[in-house]
Specification:
Largest sheet: none
Number of strands: 0
Helix content: over 70%
Radius of gyration: 28 Å
Shape: globular
Number of helices: 27
Strand content: under 5%
Order of helices and strands: HHHHHHHHHHHHHHHHHHHHHHHHHHH
Structural class: mainly alpha
Length: 516
């Protein structure tokens, strides 16, 4: 039987529930129905017992007619969400605020205006202290309605105060919205473009985004405004190859949350993204000691963050495993990185439905590079193939798609799978041209690989040395150096020239730069 999306929401919700949520729902539903054999409870049990959705099995386990099933599922879905909300309300500030607003509405409808006003004032204080400005405006508008009914002096004064407060909050909402849009646009540009590749790219990014960011540079911003401002500057600097500024603003971003620790719960997603960008900046700067400190601090917060909700646990995994892998890359500990793969695979399997294509591709590429560094080329190729076939849209992380194909060529050569190397080279070359991503480093690599079959074994080491010498100047080139962020070609070449594993080359370089 073909399963359409409309069959899935309630089933997926049941399968995502924790034991505590299921237990709470059973108690809630039993009290609600007054009958433990209620049909929607039986439907819940049927869903809970299945690994995959199968309507025939559902109908067999739950004695309802097929035409009744859609209404039954809709009813169950609503009751599930209601019971989960009752369980989660104490963990979520915004849900607590809305609950007080609902209670205030009930009191208002019954004519208890003073009690309604008190609850709204409590809700407003909670909203403002947690910078939930959009909700705060809704509360103020409701307060005006309550106050308008009570014609006394104090209520008139309250209305004037609330009106001024609303104007200030509205300005914050406008600024936050504009900054969040800038950040999202820069992030979207990164997903398509990666880093800037030419003067044209730099001009495009600078002319459009710099004036928008300069507008907020010296402003007196609220916590939320600052979060989105720092976030925007980080992405802007990241795209522009300015990794020092990227790190500095990611540090400001994370420090802001450290100063307002309670906001890590309210805006956990923004906090974790800040940690990810800070770790990434430190990795690109090759600041190993500081990177290790940040990762260690993050580990101490694992339980508190992952206990917030399932989404927080998923995002924490992205940051933590990304940082762990980069730690091994810097040290050349590819064997330890390979040992981590099973743990990462379990994480990917658990959150497969929720992780974006971008994050999946990032993990696959990192794992592939880990296997390459550990000289497990066939395993490397398996993960590169996942990237190459993971999306039909060539614009999604096209930078990773391009470098996955280049690394695949090198890994195929190292694994001795070179019977169709000429075809592979033509295919990769065609893809790079199509993506407009053919730069000098790629040209040098493709040219070298094209000539592999014609190079005499006695000349091979010298050819590698010649390629190494040609590529080395590009490691500090404004645009060409981006290639080495994805693929440490020079370390691979050095390993081939010296006849030692690439892991050994990276370890030696790491020890040199971190001595003392």
């Amino acid at each position: 039987m073909q399963i359409t999306y409309k069959n899935k929401p309630v089933f997926e919700l049941v399968k995502s529930m924790t034991k505590a949520e299921k237990r709470n729902f059973k108690l809630y539903a039993t009290r609600l129905s007054g009958n433990q054999d209620a049909k929607f409870l039986m439907l819940f049990d049927a869903f809970d017992s299945l690994e995959e959705y199968d309507e025939a099995k559902v109908l067999k386990k739950c004695p309802v007619k097929k035409e009744q099933l859609p209404n039954m599922k809709a009813h169950l879905y609503k009751q599930l969400l209601t019971s989960i909300r009752l369980l989660d309300v104490q963990k979520n500030i915004d849900m607590q605020i809305r609950e007080n607003m609902d209670f205030a509405r009930i009191l208002f409808n019954k004519g208890h205006y003073r009690q309604s006003h008190k609850l709204l004032e409590k809700a407003k204080e909670l909203a403002l202290s947690n910078e939930l400005h959009t909700i705060a405006i809704q509360i103020i508008e409701f307060q005006k309605t309550v106050d308008s009914i009570q014609s006394n002096r104090s209520m008139v004064d309250n209305t004037e105060i609330n009106s001024k407060e609303a104007i200030d909050i509205c300005n914050k909402v406008i600024n936050t919205n504009e900054l969040s849009v800038i950040s999202t646009m820069l992030y979207g540009l990164y997903l398509k473009l990666g880093y800037v590749r030419s003067e044209k790219d730099i001009k495009l990014v600078t002319q459009y985004f710099k004036p928008k960011l300069d507008k907020y540079r010296s402003g007196n911003l609220s916590f939320t405004e600052n979060v989105y401002y720092f976030q925007s500057v980080v992405w802007y600097s990241y795209i522009m190859h300015d990794f020092l500024t990227c790190y500095k603003y990611a540090l400001k971003w994370v420090n802001l949350f450290d100063k307002h620790d309670y906001m890590k719960i309210v805006m956990y997603d923004n906090y974790l993204r800040g940690c990810l960008r800070m770790l990434d900046g430190l990795f690109l700067l090759r600041s190993h000691k500081r990177h290790a400190e940040v990762l260690k601090k993050l580990e101490t917060e694992k339980n508190s963050i992952c206990s917030i909700n399932e989404n927080a646990g998923m995002l924490f995994g992205v940051v933590y495993y990304y940082g762990r892998m980069n730690e091994y890359f810097m040290q050349g500990d590819f064997d330890k990185g390979v040992e981590l793969v099973d743990e990462i695979e379990s994480y990917l399997k658990r959150y497969e439905k929720y992780l974006s294509t971008h994050y999946k591709m990032l993990f696959y590429y990192k794992i592939a590079c880990m296997y390459f560094g550990n000289e497990q080329y066939r395993e490397c190729l398996q993960y590169l193939q996942k990237i190459i076939t993971s999306t039909r849209d060539p614009q999604v992380r096209r930078d990773l798609q391009c470098y996955a194909r280049i690394l695949s060529l090198i890994a195929s050569y190292e694994a001795g799978i070179d019977h169709n190397i000429d075809y592979q080279i033509k295919s990769v070359y065609s893809f790079l041209v199509k993506m407009n991503d053919m730069h000098e480093v790629q040209k040098e690599m493709i040219s070298f690989l094209k000539r592999l079959n014609t190079i005499y074994s006695s000349d091979f080491k010298q050819e590698l040395k010649n390629l190494y010498d040609r590529l080395l100047p590009y490691t500090s080139h404004p645009y060409e150096r981006r290639s080495f962020f994805y693929l440490d070609i020079t370390s691979w070449l050095e390993s081939k020239i010296k006849g030692i594993p690439v892991a050994e080359v990276i370890k030696r370089n790491f020890e040199k730069t971190n001595r003392g």
